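note to self — DONT lose this again. spent like an hour looking for the file last time. sequence + predicted structure for the chain T wanted, 491 res
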Amino acid sequence: MQLYCPSPTSYERWKTREVMVGNVGIGGKNPIRIQSMTTTDTMDTDATIEQSIRMIDTGCEIIRITAPSNKEAENLQKIKDGLRSKGFNTPLVADIHFTPNAAEIAASIVEKVRINPGNYADRKKFEIHDYNDAMYAEKLERIQERFIPLVRICKENGTAMRIGTNHGSLSDRIMSRYGDTPLGMVESALEFLRIAENESYHDIILSMKASNTQVMVQAYRLLVKTMIEEKMNYPLHLGVTEAGEAEDGRIKSAVGIGTLLEDGLGDTIRVSLTEEPEAEIPVAQLLVDRYSGRKNHSEIPKIDSTPYDPFFRKRRTTNGILNLGDEEVPRVIGDISNSKSISHNDLNSFGYLYSKSQDKWHVSDQALDYLFIGDNKLDFEIPGSLSIIQNNRSFKQSERHYPLFNSYELDSIDPKQISFLKVESSIYLGDLSLSPKTILILESNKEHGYAALRQKFIELIELKILNPVIVKRDYSANTSDEFLLYSSIDL
């Protein structure tokens, strides 16, 4: 099995080496660190200091500041002095693009510098070259010439470094050999890492950021797999590039960062929202908090191998039933089963608005596909794009109405009739004789439910069960943000 995490079913953080960023340890036995980045003009010393303090007050442990040129890099000293004079010792990171000289200046001032291999010394000029081995090696020598001085300054000053690859900003040389791919992102970072190792410099953190969460997850998994093969264990910085704002930004961040945290990957995170940086910290903290007691979760059957490639996304093959499975997009079910009675207006929050004067339904773009009504009955005509699911004990045949069975009611299912079957993740699916017209609702109440559901999907593939599946999770969230983030990770 190609490993990219300690275990696909047992939560355990991947053991990385500790890298000190000032007085804050990243990796090793340290907790997952939370950081953010200022949005002020770096030359506006007072504004940057004030914003940094607001970030610190909300829980930010590491502050990154952009330094696009030498003058901004030099001004980091004033910012640092200002913060220290006010009693704040939070480590500072210089964010460098395109300017090696600025990185070298900053490395003797702040506790960490971040460089992007795609634009540090080997830039993307949107030129297509067919590099032979000699040309490729020549370019690598040029990188060494520009990069080694920074490595030596960092080593001399005890400054840490993040080698952070960004999808979409790979150099022409890397693009020519690997394309704009997760593998290209990994190789771009490892080239710089190997140069640093040759200088006996190891205070390095790695990142593989992308705005596409699938690319991001694939790149980090490939990076960890490669490090395991090469006996490396550098800490990981997780982040989704420009995730956005409000719900969209939070969902996207949770999908990318959370997917990796579920597998024990990640030593420090930054949630990148188009909001004030202090608004990012509570979101990041919620993501980290989810795993504080995860190690003691109930046991999940061990996975010896995966019947799919974990480094590239491919949908599980399923049969089509109604508008579920096969090549259909994922569908959404709403739950209104706890209502004592259901009226037209109860469907408003699910994207269906009824006009009494027109006797007509108006369907929003966000309207769900199925509505579970439990033991309730409907005394009105439903919208044409909506289907109803009822508990079998209350089910009566009607257009676009389907019965829901529990696993202990399996023998009651009519194999000629389309039905839904609710199955808990602890049940071995090989013991079920499933009708080809049955849609599975797979749920898990385990604390490490993400992994429990993954184990069941692997079981489905190994047993060659092609029935489509709907995932169900329950949440006891304290806030709407908590529910939004945790459900985004799981689904």
